[in-house]
Write a structure and sequence with these properties.
The complex is a heterodimer of chains A (about 325) and B (about 220). With about 325 residues, chain A is α+β, with helices and mostly antiparallel strands. Chain A is built from four helices and 21 strands. Chain B is built from five helices and 13 strands. The chains are: A alpha+beta (about 325), B alpha+beta (about 220). At the A-B interface, strand 16, strand 19, strand 20 and helix 4 of A face strand 3 and strand 4 of B.
């Protein structure tokens, strides 16, 4: 019997277990998955004293409301998130990027992410999970990963296998910033689009559509004119690829994307901007900005250094 | 042979094997795929073979485009001329409830459905690639008289096991998923088994596949 567990009072909109994802399986059609916002995922684990590839709960928009049963445990939440901790009659306003102790019968209510999509809940310990292809990451469309490949549901239990007893409180000063310009490298089918179409892509604003999830982000705006073919021979995709579908609108592949696709690739979002890209809420307005490969590599180094620097401060 | 290597974003190589989509080109792609996979190159995350392309994604913290490109440029294909392929016979039931688009195909192709099925079941298919959804095999080449475009509006849900046709290819929906292929039947056979850590796919690139028509009774009593 597990004596330490969370009782789910409200599961939230899309709460799933995630870690660093799974590799070496694209050729059989299994995508990467993993935490969408890598930096906030890593920070959540460091704040709770875990290693860098440890399962956490990722939530979108509205997170779970949980009641804790068991021995004291530390938790941390990252992202831009409003949450409350209820200890008896005492209601505490939660703060992101610092650890909190939960004791028996305490409640954690993750109310919402603010002007962002994803947030992360990590515990100083280990959830009791089944791994698939050495990862807990959950892909709800393909039913792959922990919790039978499904998102958390109401009245379910989340068992905790292990609690880290030697925990020291942690805190970090960090504020997430938003992007309006998404930097991209030209795609392999860039020349399928007319001069006007290319201009539309780089000069016009696009709006993030409601039809966005862990698989992809659809964008609305002026149609991008294709002068060659609206289909290509199906070929491999990676996350960040921007395909333009037959209707002329771009769709950006995100972490749970199908592994192959047949629409022309107009661009690819640079790795340095991926974390901020996934946090764009429906209705956000964005522009695409071209960078070359060298700059993209330098920007990634800077992004990675900043992430490592934040981790080392905890 | 690889005709051209370019970058797909900042963390992937895009290897182009030429415009033609045929078995010979695809066998080259598969040989490269297998050779590169066996080499376990540090930093390589995923290798995705398709008809005439090979996409190699990597971890930008460990390697970059130019370094990996050099390695791939100098790679020697160690696979012998014959790639090992397995043969499979897939049972398919074509009862009305499973053949969702056979009427549409009859109209578009202007061929009677029995003729469509006769042609389909006499063909031996070659697996070009697997993916889109886990384990879905892309099989070719369908006879020219059976080639039709995909549905104008894709279905939100195509049932698991559905056999679909589009252009020169046939595929099998390994689980329920959205999709726009013309559905002509359904197999009771499990094509993708996600409880298997090793080789969850039944059919892999290079394998040969034929289909065998079964009755509804056989379909219902089917045990693997």
């Amino acid at each position: 019997m597990n004596k330490n567990y969370f009782e789910i009072i409200r599961a939230g909109i899309n709460s799933t277990f995630q870690d660093l994802g799974r590799n070496h399986l694209y050729h059989i059609g299994i995508p990467f998955s993993g935490a969408m916002d890598n930096r906030n995922y890593l920070l959540a684990n460091k704040l709770t004293g875990n290693n860098h590839n440890h399962p956490v709960i990722e939530f979108a928009y509205q997170g779970p409301h949980l009641k804790y049963h068991g021995n004291p445990i530390n938790i941390a939440i990252t992202g831009d998130v409003s949450f409350k901790i209820k200890k008896g009659d005492n209601l505490i306003d939660g703060k992101c990027y610092q650890s909190f102790i939960l004791e028996n019968n305490d409640e954690l209510d993750i109310i919402s992410t603010n002007k962002s999509v994803y947030g992360y809940l990590a515990i100083s310990g280990m959830f009791d999970l089944k791994f698939q292809w050495s990862s807990c990451s959950t892909n709800t469309k393909a039913n792959i990963g922990s919790n039978n490949g499904k998102k958390l549901s109401n009245n379910q239990k989340i068992n905790i296998k292990e609690i880290n007893q030697n925990f020291v409180n942690t805190k970090l000063n960090y504020v997430n910033t938003k992007i309006e310009n998404i930097r991209v490298i030209k795609g392999t089918n860039f020349n399928y689009f007319s001069d006007e179409g290319k201009k539309t892509f780089f000069k016009n604003e696009f709006k993030v559509s409601k039809l966005s999830d862990r698989m992809g982000m659809r964008l609305e705006g002026k149609k991008i004119e294709n002068i060659i073919e609206t289909n290509i021979r199906s070929e491999g995709l990676i996350k960040g690829v921007i395909q333009v579908t037959a209707d002329g609108f771009p769709i950006i592949m995100l972490s749970d994307h199908g592994t192959i696709g047949g629409y022309p690739k107009i661009g690819v979002v640079i790795s340095a901007d991926y974390d901020k890209l996934v946090q764009l809420t429906p209705g956000s307005r964005v522009k695409f900005q071209e960078v070359d490969l060298n700059s993209a590599e330098t920007l990634f180094k800077l992004y990675d250094l900043e992430t490592q620097n934040l981790i080392s401060k905890i | 042979m690889i005709k051209n290597i370019s970058n797909l974003g900042d963390a992937a190589l895009y290897c182009d094997f030429g415009k033609e989509v045929n078995k010979e080109t695809n066998i080259q792609v598969i040989k490269y795929f297998k050779t590169i996979k066996e080499k376990n190159i540090l930093g390589v995350n995923n290798i995705t073979p398709s008809y005439n392309k090979l996409i190699i994604s990597f971890d930008l913290k460990k390697i970059n485009f130019n370094k990996l490109r050099k390695i791939i440029d100098n790679i020697e294909i160690t696979k012998s001329d014959n790639i090992q392929n397995k043969r499979f016979q897939i049972p398919v039931c074509c009862e009305k409830e499973f053949s969702l688009d056979i009427k549409r195909l009859e109209e578009i192709l202007n061929i009677k459905k029995e003729k469509i099925y006769d042609n389909f079941f006499e063909k031996e298919f070659f697996c070009y690639m697997t993916g889109f959804i886990a384990g879905m095999p892309f099989l070719g080449d369908l006879q020219e008289n059976l080639r039709a475009k995909r549905l104008d509006t894709p279905r939100v849900k195509v049932p698991k096991g559905s056999i679909g046709l589009t252009e020169q290819f046939a595929n099998i929906y390994t689980f329920e998923s959205p999709g726009g292929w013309n559905i002509i039947g359904n197999t009771p056979l499990n094509i993708f088994d996600n409880s298997k850590e090793k080789e969850p796919n039944l059919i892999n690139p290079g394998d040969l596949v034929t289909f065998k028509r079964i009755t509804k009774e056989k379909y219902q009593n089917y045990h693997e």
